[in-house]
Every structure is written in structure tokens, then in C-alpha cells.
Automatic annotation (TrEMBL):
Full protein name: Mannitol-1-phosphate 5-dehydrogenase
Classification lineage: Bacteria, Bacillati, Bacillota, Clostridia, Halanaerobiales
NAD in keyword set: yes
Binding site for NAD(+): A3, L4, H5, F6, G7, A8, G9, N10, I11, G12, R13, G14
Molecular functions per Gene Ontology: mannitol-1-phosphate 5-dehydrogenase activity
Short name of any one Pfam family annotated for the protein: Mannitol_dh
Domain (Mannitol dehydrogenase N-terminal) ranges: 1-192
Length: 390
């Protein structure tokens, strides 16, 4: 079995590629980072290290890698031959890989009319559908109709912290012990392949996407913005402060109310999920920088994103969102000179003011909500974060 994976980054190597290899696929990565590509091809392997007390290491082999710029024809041939294609390149980069995938799928229609699933595994909602739309932009209606006859775009939800470190053996993927990869089986077109080891297959992905995105992703970002406001460097050091942990738990307890109401999860299930989430975030074997986690605040403050959608839903349900409002205010105060979105956000606030910034970047038009976030914004500017969240 041949698997082709776009993106040889931390998630690609430490999570998706790792499980594909465990399932028995001959795995080939596609990337543009020549250093990583060369390191993989030099040994036909790479290392994964668990962020546990023993720093457990595993070697993933055999694997190969191709450069999508320098070896375009080989990548197109690999698409033609693949039994499964996956990706983890970042949601903003799906448009960049859509062109070569489209070329490969057209070639495949000529040479290999077998069914194929293409799964984009990103930290975003319905990433495979997003990739499909990017491919549609390249294709005629006739071409896309033919592609969809043989190619499925099942959506997935992924959850695993993945970092990396340099070693004598090259770049090592660092991953936490916990992981969750959920795939929507009802959107798959090829059900003849063996199930991927460790994957949960469901017929309705929405509950899992929402639980993950609006609890874990929300709380991760919330901890980063609150930690930054408190002068902390990492997620772990932030949650080592008892009052900070209590505050993040209060945020999670606000958001969980709409998750329980809208999706088929019991209160006990969500309580356990929250406890597990906090435990993961506090893992002392991880040093998760708040600047990294908080990056791209404009995206994270947008209308359907992890902070704003829960706020809107809670407001519509007439449920309290006092703690979440503080988090959102803190996100508008986030600063990182190396993050273009943070710089753009700061400049806009300086030029137009916080109220116009809230309207522009969140899409919220309700005056009560805008006033609530504005009030917390000025409180955070004038007071210490600990006095605001107590």
C-alpha cells in the first residue's frame, strides 16, 4: 500500500506519518524543505520522541520524501500511484498544494481509475472540504465531476501537540503521548483499505470537531493570551499558577454548556475531557511558548473561530460568558513583533480604536457584546491580569 503525505512538518512526521507507517503503508512525504527531505532520504527514516518522563524514542522507517518544486513530475506520478493521500501543511497552505494535486489527479484519471481518499488533517474545521474547493478553482466542471467520481475528500479532526528539536541525528519530531485522529467514514469513497491504526471512524464528525476546536483549541489560545498578559513565557508556567488554572477551567466550564446542549455528549464526558485537557496542557515535559500558541490572533478572533463562535453561541443561549470575554479582550492586547497578524492588529487598534477593531476582526455587531469586550480590554490595560480574573 502506498501513502503520499503532503507536509513533512511536526504533525506530518510525528502524528499522521507515524500512524500510516504503523498501519503498513509505504510512506512518501512531499514538502519544500530541502533539509528535511534530504535527512529523510539519507536514512529512509526519521525519529519520533514522546514527551513523557522517559523521552521514549521510535524510528519510523521505511520512508522517502519528494520536493514538490524540484521534483514535480515525480510527485504527480506518486499521486497517480497512491492508495491514500493525506496532508498537514497548515490550513493557509492548502491553496498552495491544490495545483499539483489537481495535476496529479488528472493524470490519475488517465492511468489509474481506482478509488482514492484525500484527507487534509489541519487545525481547522472541514479542511478536506477546503482543499476540495481549492482544487475546484483549478478544474472545469467536467474535470471536477470526473475527479469526484473516483476521489473522496473525507474530513477529519486531529489533536496532538507536535514540536521538534535538533539532534545529532537530525530533526526529531516531539509529540505528546495523547492523540486523537477522527475521520468521517461517511465521506470516504474507498472503504476497502485497512483502517488506519489508532484512528476513530465516525459517520458524523461535527460533535468531535466542535468539542476539539471549541474546547481544546479555544482553551489553548485562551491560556496563551492570558499567560502573555501575565508575563508568562509558556502554557505550562501559566497553568502552574493556581489562579490561572482556575480561570481557564472557568472559561472551559462556560463553553462546555453550549457543547453539551448542541451535541450528543454527556456532562460527565465533557468533564472528563476538560480534566484531560488541563492535564495535557500542564505536561512538564513540554515547553509550549505563549508567543507560538497565540500567533495569528486575527484568524483566531474571526467570526467562526475558537473564541468568537462560543461567545456568540453562549450569548444567543442567554448563558454567561464573562470569563471568555476577558480572554477575547486579552487577545486584542497580544503583541508579537515577529507575528504579522499581531502587528497588523496592534496597528489597527492604535489607528481606529478597540471598538472598531472588535467590529472589524470579530464580525460581532451586537453592541452589548462589543461593549462587554471593550470594558474588559480597558480593565486589562489598567489592572494586573490577576486582579481582573480573580
Amino acid at each position: 500500500m502506498q501513502a503520499l503525505h503532503f507536509g513533512a512538518g511536526n504533525i506530518g512526521r510525528g502524528f499522521i506519518g507515524y500512524l500510516l507507517n504503523k498501519t503498513g503503508y509505504n510512506l512518501c512525504f512531499v514538502d519544500v524543505n530541502e533539509e528535511i527531505i534530504k535527512a529523510i532520504n539519507d536514512t529512509n527514516s526519521y525519529k519520533v520522541e514522546l514527551l513523557d518522563s522517559d523521552s521514549t524514542q521510535e524510528t519510523v522507517s521505511p520512508v522517502t520524501a519528494l520536493n514538490s518544486i524540484k521534483e514535480r513530475k515525480k510527485v504527480i506520478q506518486a499521486i497517480t500511484d497512491a492508495d491514500l493521500i493525506t496532508a498537514s501543511v497548515g490550513i493557509e497552505n492548502l491553496e498552495k498544494i491544490a495545483g499539483i494535486i489537481f495535476e496529479g489527479l488528472l493524470k490519475r484519471l488517465e492511468k489509474n481509475k481506482t478509488k482514492l481518499d484525500l484527507i487534509a488533517n489541519e487545525n481547522a474545521v472541514r479542511a478536506s472540504s477546503t482543499l476540495k474547493k481549492e482544487i475546484e478553482k483549478k478544474a472545469s466542471k467536467k474535470e471536477m465531476k470526473q475527479i469526484c467520481k473516483y476521489v473522496g475528500f473525507p474530513n477529519s479532526a486531529i489533536d496532538r501537540l507536535a514540536l521538534s528539536r535538533e539532534s545529532e541525528d537530525g530533526l526529531v519530531a516531539l509529540v505528546e503521548p495523547f492523540y486523537e485522529w477522527v475521520i468521517n467514514r461517511s465521506e470516504m469513497i474507498n472503504l476497502e483499505l485497512p483502517e488506519i491504526e489508532g484512528v476513530i471512524y465516525v459517520d458524523d464528525l461535527d460533535p468531535y470537531i466542535n468539542r476539539k476546536f471549541y474546547l481544546i483549541n479555544m482553551a489553548h489560545a485562551a491560556t496563551a493570551y492570558i499567560g502573555f498578559a501575565a508575563g508568562e513565557e509558556t502554557i505550562q508556567s501559566t497553568l502552574a499558577e493556581p489562579e490561572m488554572e482556575k480561570f481557564i477551567r472557568r472559561v472551559l466550564n462556560e463553553v462546555k454548556k453550549y457543547i453539551i446542549k448542541d451535541f450528543d455528549f454527556s456532562s460527565e464526558d465533557i468533564e472528563s475531557y476538560i480534566d484531560k485537557t488541563i492535564k495535557r496542557f500542564k505536561n512538564e515535559n513540554i515547553s509550549d511558548n505563549v508567543l507560538r500558541v497565540g500567533r495569528a490572533p486575527i484568524r483566531k478572533l474571526s467570526y467562526e473561530e475558537r473564541l468568537i463562535k462560543p461567545l456568540r453561541n453562549l450569548f444567543e443561549l442567554d448563558l454567561a460568558a464573562d470569563n471568555l470575554s476577558i480572554v477575547i479582550a486579552a487577545a486584542f492586547l497580544f503583541k508579537n513583533k515577529d507575528d504579522q497578524e499581531a502587528v497588523k492588529l496592534n496597528k489597527y487598534i492604535q489607528a481606529k480604536g478597540i471598538e472598531k477593531a472588535i467590529l472589524k476582526f470579530t464580525g460581532i455587531e451586537n453592541k452589548e457584546l462589543i461593549d462587554k469586550i471593550t470594558k474588559e480590554y480597558y480593565k486589562l490595560k489598567e489592572q494586573s491580569i490577576k486582579s481582573v480574573i480573580k
